[in-house]
Amino acid sequence: MAVGAVERMSEAEARADWARIAEEVRRANRAYHAEDAPEISDADYDALKARLRALEARFPDLAAESPTEEVGAAPSETFAKVTHAVRMLSLENAFSEEDAADFVERVRSFLNLAAEAELAVTAEPKIDGLSLSLRYEKGWLVQAATRGDGAVGENVTDNARTIADIPARLSGAPDLLEVRGEVYMSHADFAALNARQAAAGEKTFANPRNAAAGSLRQLDAGITAARPLRFFAYSWGALSEPLAVTQIGAVERLAALGFQTNPRTRVCRSLPEMMVAYREIEQARATLGYDIDGVVYKIDNLALQARLGFRSTTPRWAIAHKFPAELAWTQLEAIDIQVGRTGALSPVARLKPVTVGGVVVSNATLHNEDYIAGRDAKGSPIREGKDIRVGDWVQVYRAGDVIPKIADVDLSQRPEGAEPYFFPHRCPECGSDAVREEGDAVRRCTGGLICPAQAVEKLKHFVSRGAFDIEGLGAKQIEMFFADDQLPIREPADIFTLAARDAANLTKLKNRDGFGERSAANLFAAIEDRRAIPLNRVIFALGIRHVGESAANLLARNYGTWEAFEAAMTGAQVGEGPDWQALTAIDGVGDVLAASVVNAFHQEAERASIDRLVAQLKIAEVARPVTEGSPVAGKTVVFTGTLEKMTRAEAKARAEALGAKVAGSVSAKTDLLVAGPGAGSKAKEAERLGVETIDEDAWLRLIGG
Predict the structure, then answer these.
(1) Is the pTM higher than 0.85?
(2) How far apart are CA 48 and CA 27, in angstroms?
(3) Which residues contact 425 (CB under 8 A, 6 or more apart)?
């Protein structure tokens, strides 16, 4: 999604687009975890989340329920886990020259660089493979780990040692060096591998990326050794000393140490030079002999990279400029409706399988009922007003080379008697009314907890990684327990009574398929271990619409304890009262998010379910972040007026890094107002409330420059 396009969207359009893309992310995530055989690369998967961020930047309350806080996918339980010393983040994506220009402009704006100041950028091919981090100590390779979810990956050290491009020992390297790059397979090696697999009667691979991922993640390192894997180094994690002062210098240092680096990496000193590099790499794509899906731009000066820093899941100093999507025609065989955790009815096209961009596609998103009917959120025609019907021949593309979508319909091949599709007004899972609120492009089931699809999805969310994350209780187990008549789990509180009910039940869990005495005991122990849990995880786990991990963390930091949070939500009335005003005064909490949280505590069935859960838990207080030695740790700071020595974005990032909370408005809870020229109503309110006010120079002296 181009940033410029987002800026031109109405709020209703943005919310509809966000809901559609978020549901696509969740579907892709389920496919990844359930099948353990991804059809798209990690970077492609992350592209969807980056598209959500553009919408969330304009309408911040959308971020509350966003899956953008995730990086990659959770590590497999098959391998030992490795916690990365420095997180392995994903990249923001660009899909046009306009997006690349926006990236350069955002960097200049953040750093307060003049338009005429040179800003060098490296450009390199974006390899379509599997991210890997290699840890060297005293020159010896001691550990190799996949990216996993960015924080925790899989230990594949023995397998990595079999790859010829990965040196076992380095000469002249820093005492500690984490080299990061991409494991991939060349086109020729991929074809030869598939030929050997077919001749042996074994499963062939869909594309080189899947082949590389499957080969690296083998329990038997001997299998990995027999596979023709390669490795390009392009980055680094933890270091005992800097590699260089520039990105290109660091890459050259990695090459000197013995790593393969991409020879097409170059330095560009202007946007036109970046576009020349992009076009040259795109033109050479078919001749490289390995898969790439774009060009990565990185700010060359490492000191500027450090100033730019990171968002929650992406660096501000890099972006991936993706290549255009490929197209293919196939037949639409059916339209199915999926019901999500929040009751959203999402139409999915079931297609006659077709290869698009090297991936076999059999499903595609249909967005919503307007899209099927051939109109946009404003009622204007799309696809020249052509609707989509079962039996149609449709043109499929992979947006950002990720989730398949339908671009066009060939009316000349429409079957005789094909009927217009009638979007259901009742939930296909529970029969409840499916309503579409004014301004919303999505139709939602009103069944709530009585809808099995919503109930199951809410329980899956409850045990997900960012929530209670109970080992041994994943999506498959939730489905099993939900359908169980002897030991059912129908709501979150049931999880914490499972052991007691098992003890009183003649049909023991240890006697069920998939469970033995030890695995049942391990599950009960894992559940017991989660009775004590931080407030932010509880809030996120409740599955309240619009409340994602970021919003849950925000609410937890502001209220501190469950008792304070529960009392405030119980006392709040939407649109009025001191509790409502205090809630909406939190920077990052809008009316939509606030109303969703308050309503959850005022709906009888949902509130009763929450109360039953809380009775089973010991919810830990979440303290405000404290940075040792910081003069502003734990304080609430507000910036107003024009800052002349740093941009507002840089000032906010610096304050938060020092442990301060940056608020958008002045209140009695504000500790400090930093006022530049042009300060208006906030300065007056601070004076009225007796809030300490300083100028930008004093602020810089306070935080040490």
Answers:
(1) no
(2) 11
(3) 433, 434, 443
One-letter identity of residue 268: C
- Cα–Cα distances (Å) from 177 to 162, 184, 556, 616, 618, in that order, read 20, 22, 36, 45, 41
Q: How far apart are CA 104 and CA 116, in angstroms?
A: 13
Residue 618: predicted pLDDT:
95
Q: Is pLDDT of 343 > 80?
A: yes
Q: Which of 461, 366, 353 is nearest to 423 (CA)?
A: 366
Q: List, in order, residues 6 or more apart from 623 with CB less than 8 Å away.
A: 560
573-597: pLDDT as tens digits: 998 889 999 999 887 788 889 998 9
The residue ranking higher by pLDDT, 76 or 198, is 198
**CA angle centred on 262, ends 256 and 267, rounded to 5°:** 90
- Residue whose C-alpha is closest to residue 181's, from 221, 131, 122: 131
Between helix 97-111 and helix 648-657 the angle, nearest 10°, is: 70
Q: b/e per residue, 424-439, with b = 16+ CB within 10 A?
A: eeebebbebebebeee
Please state, in angstroms and rounded to a whole number, the distance separating the CA atoms of residues 529 and 702: 43
Give dist(CA 134, CA 8) in Å, integer.
43
Evaluate whether 92 touches 320 at the Cβ level (below 8 Å): yes
378 is catalytic: no
Between 259 and 355, residue with greater pLDDT: 259
Residue 184 has pLDDT above 90, yes or no: yes
Pairing of strands 672-675, 636-640: parallel
Instruction: From the candidates 49, 81, 126, 652, give the one annotated as an active-site residue.
Output: 126
- For the cut 50, the answer to whether the pLDDT of residue 470 exceeds it is yes
Cross-strand bridge partners of residue 444: 344, 435
How would you write 345-408 as a 3-class SS string?
EEEEEEEEEEEECCEEEEEEECCCHHHHHCECCCCCECHHHCCCCCCCEEEEEEHHHCCEEEEE
How many C-beta neighbours within 10 Å does residue 564 have? 13
Query: CA-to-CA distance for 337 and 453, rounded, in angstroms?
Result: 11
Domains and CATH numbers, the chain: 9-69 (1.10.287.610), 81-319 (3.30.470.30), 448-530 (1.10.150.20), 534-620 (1.10.150.20), 636-703 (3.40.50.10190)
Question: Is residue 34 predicted with pLDDT exceeding 50?
Answer: no
**Where do we find the tokens 């390297």?**
173
In single-letter form, the type of residue at position 70 comes to E
397: β partners: 327, 405
Q: Mean of the per-residue pLDDT values for the chain?
A: 86
Where does the pLDDT of residue 306 fall: very low under 50, low under 70, confident under 90, or very high at 90 and above?
A: very high
Report the distance separating Cα 341 and Cα 441, nearest Å.
17
Quick: pLDDT tens for 114-152. 888 899 999 999 998 899 999 999 999 999 999 888 888
Taken as a whole, the chain contains a residue count of 705
φ, ψ at 610 (rounded to 5°) = -65, -45
Q: What distance in Å separates the CA atoms of residue 664 and residue 334, rounded to the nearest whole number? A: 49
Q: Is the pLDDT of residue 510 over 70?
A: yes
pLDDT tier for residue 7 given thresholds of 50, 70 and 90 = low
Which one has a higher pLDDT value, 438 or 83? 83
| CA-based max dimension of the chain | 82
First to last CA, the chain: 38
Distance CA 176, CA 133 (A): 13
Among 163-172, 382-391, 429-438, the least confident range: 429-438
Per-residue pLDDT averaged across 361-365, rounded? 88
The helix (run of H) or strand (run of E) holding residue 636 is: strand 636-640
Query: Could you tell me which of 348, 349, 35 has the C-alpha nearest to residue 206?
Result: 35
